[in-house]
Design brief:
This protein is an alpha+beta fold. It folds into three domains: about 90 residues, Beta Barrel (Thrombin, subunit H), CATH 2.40.10; about 100 residues, Trypsin-like serine proteases (Thrombin, subunit H); about 100 residues, PDZ domain (Pdz3 Domain, Roll), CATH 2.30.42.10. The protein contains seven helices and 20 strands.
């Protein structure tokens, strides 16, 4: 005889899964009911119109002259602006891999493939890639950098017919208040345009990635979007008047650009020799001793040797010496160039940046208790 066990409905217990399913069904039915009731209620209130159609587009007149000019500049210059990617080699599981380390903008300098951008955009990159406006990507060689000016020149191998240089303007006759345009290619998605005015001229900028101050910058309120570093700053005629180099992070609406006069001086040097010949005195300084000098209350810049064909040596300047017992025998202290006061190395670097190789300046030095002046012709010193 077979034993059979019979379960009545009262003996069954719902499993957790079945309880969840029934709860979900109940929630869906409840939500559907609420939505149906809401639709019926709103329809009863006259909030829905089954005959609603898209509105007609209102006609407008032609764009004004300013808008048309701005569009014309953008369409003419945007094909010259490129997207730059900095890559680095990273060690992974005993091998190496290439990772993207930073991006920025740049622009075509000539039909030979030279591209201008910021030094900080390509700084310490193991590989650099440039994407043109036709979305072709080219491996770039680093031709040279001028770290003190935050400028760099790259070279790509692309047909000259695809390269469109930007016309050069002048930074000598710029006026505060005149219109400017900034074009970039952030993230390689597409070109961007921002407009503004020149807010100030001859500003000084200290970028964290450079360390030394960049003098003579153009200040503008044209928004410099992330990734726009290295792109062109243009006048209303579409001419290059600067290279966007940084945005002041502490304040909105403040951007800076290296003036085109500096760009047109530095870039040809980098293309010719790979290095920037900056103006100098032909001396060797030790910036690391400045804290000691400040503690001693010593103002000015001492120097500890002469370079080749030194203009300072020819002028009869006296160098300082480091003695064997780590003391400093102070010689001449540079305290002025023309009407610029020199209190430390920053002042010296900043002031020399205002001149060019071959300029003749009046150098003021403290020698003991006397102040001596000497006429010196600034000589070429190779920059980084």
């Amino acid at each position: 005889m077979t034993n059979q066990t019979h379960y009545s409905p009262a003996d069954r217990q719902d499993t957790p899964g079945s309880v969840y399913r029934w709860s979900l069904v109940f929630a869906i039915l409840l939500l559907s009911g609420v939505l149906i009731w809401r639709s019926a209620y709103l329809a009863g209130q006259g909030l829905y119109d089954p005959n609603a159609m898209p509105r007609a587009v209102a006609p407008r007149g032609p764009l004004d002259d300013t808008e048309q000019a701005r569009i014309k500049v953008f369409e003419a210059v945007a094909p010259s602006v490129v997207f730059i990617t900095r890559l680095r080699d990273r060690a992974v599981f005993g091998g190496t891999t290439v990772v993207r380390d930073g991006t920025g903008s740049g622009f075509v300098w000539d039909t030979k493939g030279h591209i201008v951008t910021n030094y900080h955009v390509v700084q310490e990159g193991d590989q650099i890639r440039v994407m043109l406006s036709d979305y072709t990507v080219h491996q770039a060689d680093l031709v040279g950098v001028a770290r003190e000016k935050d400028l760099a020149v790259l070279k790509i191998r692309a047909p000259g017919t695809t390269l469109k240089p930007i016309p050069l303007g002048s930074s000598a006759n710029l006026k505060v208040g005149q219109d400017v345009l900034s074009i970039g290619n952030p993230f390689g998605l597409d070109h961007t345009l921002t407009a503004g005015v020149i807010s100030a001229l001859n500003r000084e900028l200290r970028a964290e990635s450079i360390g030394t101050p960049i003098v003579g910058c153009i200040q503008t309120d044209a928004a410099i979007n992330p990734g726009n570093s290295g792109g062109p700053l243009l006048d209303s005629a579409g001419r290059l008047i600067g290279v966007n180099t940084a945005i002041k992070r502490q304040s909105e609406g403040i951007g800076f650009a290296v003036p085109v006069a500096t760009v047109n001086e530095v870039v040809p040097q980098l293309i010719r020799t790979g290095s920037f010949q900056k103006p100098g005195l032909g001396i060797r300084t030790y910036p690391q001793i400045e804290p000691y000098l400040r503690r001693q209350g010593i103002t000015g810049v001492p120097f500890f040797g002469f370079g080749e064909n030194s203009a300072a040596r020819a002028a009869g300047l006296v160098k300082s010496d480091l003695t064997g017992d780590y003391r400093i025998e102070i010689g001449d202290l540079i305290i002025g160039i023309d009407d610029h006061q020199i209190r430390n190395m920053d002042d010296l670097t900043r002031t020399l940046g205002r001149y060019r190789v071959g300029d003749r300046v009046t150098l003021s030095v403290q020698r003991g208790k006397k102040v001596i002046q000497a006429q010196i012709t600034l000589q070429a010193v190779t920059g980084s």
